[in-house]
Sequence to fold (426 residues):
Amino acid sequence: MIFKHELKINLRSFLIWTLTIAITDFGFMLMYPSLQDSLKKATDVYSNMGALTAAFGMDRLSMASPLGFYGIEVGAILSLGGALFAAILGTGILSKEEGGHTSEYLFTLPYSRITITVQKVAAVICSLDSYPFR
Amino acid sequence: MEQVIQIKDLVKSYGKSRGVSGISITVQQGDFYGFIGPNGAGKSTTIRSMLGLIKKDSGCINLLGMDIKTNKVDILKRIGYMPSETMFYPTLRVNEIIKMTADAYQMDCNDKANELCERLKVDRTKKIEELSLGNRKKISIVCALQHKPDLYIFDEPTSGLDPLMQKEFFTLLREVNKEGATIFFSSHVLSEIQSYCNHAAIIKEGKIIAVDSVSNLTKTNARKVTLKGISQLPLIPGISGKTCEESGLHFMYRGDIKPLISVINKLNVQDVIIEEPSLEEIFLHYYEKAGE
Fold:
């Protein structure tokens, strides 16, 4: 019950985040053709940076190809956005009840605090799982 | 008779500031119990401790024969609670909130909810964020009453409600009270307690200063008297707290009203106001008694 309610409450921010990230990614892909030349040079520079190269996946993908650019740039935005979204959802699950003064309503319904917390965390995990990670 | 609420030596403090210290209240089944005190006296603290919303420092709270600490969920199932600052999820609609609350009690409360909404004139299609405090309170009443609990706890229920709705609200309470439910509500409006409650406790600065039946509490029949146009008063027994201000001569009178009126009759007064003392003055009365 709380699980369903929580998903519903989070739905709007979930859609906004997903849409924003999708638009940003699309914008990056539009920029690709004009960046093509400079990306070739950048690829050479980045190829010898060891762990950093690996962290961005540049040892496996080449930024100079459209798919490689998508994998590296867009992937970075996706995971950054995802991490931020996770942080916002996670910190908000209980604090929004206090902030919105709804805690007195929720905590006097016949649920134990553990039930409430578990269902809320489950809803957050479910929301994050639906987020388009790479 | 079963004791529905048993609070023994409840202590709760918020750091250095005062909470409540040593509160003991017993409420019998079927009682209509009032809990009066000014703002900040500890009414909400007591009620929140009763519901397990805040952790008490020490003391014992038993509701419906169960300890709130160990049987919270079972107790909450049989309680209808209405907080003073009623807030729901702003983006939800009234209908959704009522349904969500009924689901929490795992009950089909449709008939009762419909009846309550109709009597309280609740618009069920509106979103919570569009509603005023009074309208949110009405939804809170529906949520507290629809599952027909055994014990009703209200924290300043009438603030924000218009007089018509207040009347309807107390009519509803009387009905459930007649059916055997116990009602416990806090208020700082003395007239509410006087008109509806059987018993009452007065709290001040975190301590209970008087517990009795309402008829006994108000038996003091102290009256606040204001005389305009004079500054001197002959000696009348039963007068206390005499003050002379620009607005007139104020004093408290305790005793039979007839001798007072016959004295006033002989005076050259422009106006006479005899009224029930305010809550503060009743408090003072109880404080004087405690000091004797």
In short: The helical segments of chain A are 2-46, 51-55, 66-99, 103-106, 113-130.
